Amino acid sequence: MRDILVTGATGFLGRHVLEALPSVLPETRAHALVRRRADWNRQKWTGALQHVEVIEGGVTGSEGWTGDRRLQNVTGIVHLAATVQHSRRNTAEMYDTNVDGTLRLVRLAAQLKCRMVFVSSSGTVGCFEDPLAKADEDSPYVERTVARWPYYDSKIKAERQARALAAQLGVQLVIVRPPMLLGPGDHRFRSTGNIIKFLRGQLPFLIDGGVSFIDIRDAAPAILRALDHPAARPVYHLDGTDCTVVEFFELCRQVSGVAAPAKVLPYDLAWQLATASETAGHVLKRKSPLPDPVVFEMARHYWGLTSLHSQRELGYVSRQPRQTLADTVAWLRANHPQLRK
């Protein structure tokens, strides 16, 4: 029996990685790092995971879980844990998790003498003003473009520093960059948040810009194969469907029967509305009905990836986008408390 460690185990991607493990890497036991065992135990989907043992702890702080004797036989780390926050407010915890937490896992990989797969983001290299632009695994970081967006800035810093530390400590680090992940099973209702708002009629308007997404059921096996490939490369892209915001919600309309917002506002107007709403919400101490201005700044860009290696080496193939969205909508309608029929 082989042992691996999976961080971010209670998240959307963690769930799918753990569920895919028996079919992709047979005879493998996962040690799932979770902040609180109670959070794991209350999830209905965790009960079927007989090949998973729980280790309580987090990637931040000097916690004692890294000395757990069960880790002694770990031969690989899948590092999924991250904080996703598209705002410029109160970002210290996100940088601690996304940057310092990743470096802590590189040090643990050095201690265990094992490979580490770090799941980063397409936004480190694949964000453009040109809707036809694409980034491959050798493309440079888009630091200037994303500098004012803390989440993507934190991911670039994490990648840079983790690479340097891994080289220093002799750790084989493999970075996997997916775009937005969709599909069934988003039990926290975070990655599918915009689709939930769409289905509830809570999107007042759209703006011109781009969306890139893949099915999480295609991403999870590829991530596990990156852990096991005998000659894995430093970076793999998981490319999928690139489309405009308007095209994305038209696809959502087709699979759901819910009308897409008819208004497409110019970016400047949308950003001004979001900024005014955020300021008013801060003064009145209530949540703004519009997304953070950072979300509009990102949404006006285009997100394009291409991969030189992931299909051949990781067996990665992106399924049809219509199927992904249909399955996402069906799962949300069956499981979201405000969408159940």
Polypeptide structure, described:
This protein is an alpha/beta fold and 341 residues long. The chain has a domain at 2-190 and 212-241: Rossmann fold (3-Layer(aba) Sandwich). Helices cover 41% and strands 17% of the residues. It has 12 helices and 14 strands. Helix 1 packs across helix 7 (216-228), helix 3 runs parallel beside helix 5 and helix 8 crosses helix 12 (321-335). The protein starts with a strand and ends in a 6-residue tail after the last helix. The mean pLDDT is 94.
Number of strands: 14
- State the assembly state of the protein chains: single chain
CATH class of the domain at 2-190 and 212-241: Alpha Beta
Name of the CATH architecture of the domain at 2-190 and 212-241:
3-Layer(aba) Sandwich
Structural class: alpha/beta
As a whole number of angstroms, the C-alpha radius of gyration is 20 Å
Sketch the topology as an H/E string, one letter per element. EHEHEEHEEHHEEHEEHEEHEHHEHH
Mean pLDDT metric: 94
Q: What is the straight-line distance between the termini?
A: 44 Å
